[in-house]
């Protein structure tokens, strides 16, 4: 009987809880119905810059660094273009892995508020997530066409990824695999290997193929002709970019491969070893850094002497398990505008590639817009240099 009386009490307790909680519910409701309070809440939230913020140009007075007066470059860039470097029949193709997530924008009215909040503006253009990704891709292609008009872009993509790219210089190649966000960096290397296999099959006997290849991220701006790499350094199979970073000395956003049968085969062997190291040792960092950690592990395993050279700014070569690897300084071939505070020595005059990692992607679109309106590359680089420390919301 006591148990039965205890079971009858919860409805009364629940009623009391609701009565006591009603003032709280009403106050929260009034809070979100008050536009002024909503505005204050929005203002109180930390927000990254949604427009360019220009600061002083780093590297002022340093030799061999870009010097800017406002947005005007006051010294000349050291271009590595040379008619003597260009050989008829040589081409350089850029290869990227590209896929689109959540391509069903507008299909769910319940998520409309999220979509509106996700819209960003760059200049006079408005972008949602899919559109900004496509805008970055188009800017990537545009920069290549300015600096290397004879080059083309090959997009390795998930067969189920749906997007439209109307560019005569770009083609897509569907390669099956796991392109989920958590596996994308590993899949990227696997897609590179699958692509190399197709090229090996197409050029089994010829002494050279019709093109060399540079595997890159899509958030880079090529600002000079990179074809000279394959002539200035004629013996490498694979080229990587290095920086003075103890844990991540190699950046996977730029990998050059010589387009000969031997070069393609050796590059495949090298990347397969990177995949093995990635899968066995670095899957805990699979979403972001696994590929770079695996690259560094493979290089350090075969070339421990390279560690002393990563703090220099000079290209050097080494052999890894029969693969000739060229190491190029990031400062020239993979330069990144520093983000936030920190040591910053300016932009080298011989910079070839600018890499807009992370939240710098807005700056990439702003830079292209400026070049597109002025056709002045040095001044555009001043814009990048003076904006590099700002964290942009993109």
- Please describe the biggest sheet, giving its number of strands, its sense, and whether it closes into a barrel: 8 strands, mixed
Structural class determined from secondary elements: alpha/beta
Distance between the termini: 65 Å
Question: Roughly how many Å is the radius of gyration?
Answer: 26 Å
Taken as a percent bin, the fraction of beta residues is 15-25%
Helical stretch tally: 12
CATH topology of the largest domain: Spore Coat Polysaccharide Biosynthesis Protein SpsA, Chain A
Q: Strands of the largest sheet, in order across it?
A: 7-6-3-8-11-10-13-12
Which residues sit in consecutive blocks of at least 5 with pLDDT less than 50? 1-8, 26-32, 37-42, 82-86, 103-114
Q: How many domains make up the 3D coordinates?
A: 2
Average pLDDT: 83
> Could you say which overall geometry the principal axes of the C-alpha atoms support?
globular
Give me the strand/helix succession. HHHEEEHEEHEEHEEHEEHHEEHEHH
The CATH homologous superfamily of the largest domain is named Spore Coat Polysaccharide Biosynthesis Protein SpsA, Chain A
Give the proportion of residues in helices: 25-40%
Give the name of the CATH architecture of the largest domain.
Alpha-Beta Complex
CATH class of the largest domain: Alpha Beta
Number of strands: 14
Polypeptide structure, described:
The protein folds into two domains: 2-44; 68-387, Alpha-Beta Complex (Spore Coat Polysaccharide Biosynthesis Protein SpsA, Chain A), CATH 3.90.550. Helices cover 39% and strands 16% of the residues. The chain has helices at residues 2-7, 10-33, 35-44, 112-118, 129-147, 184-202, 228-232, 261-281, 290-302, 330-333, 361-374, 377-387; strands spanning 68-69, 72-73, 92-97, 120-122, 125-127, 152-157, 170-174, 212-216, 220-222, 238-242, 250-257, 316-320, 323-329, 353-355. The protein has an eight-stranded mixed β-sheet, with helices on both faces. Strands 1-2 form a two-stranded antiparallel ribbon. It has a two-stranded antiparallel sheet with strand order 4-5. Residues 1-8, 26-32, 37-42, 82-86 and 103-114 have low confidence and may be disordered.
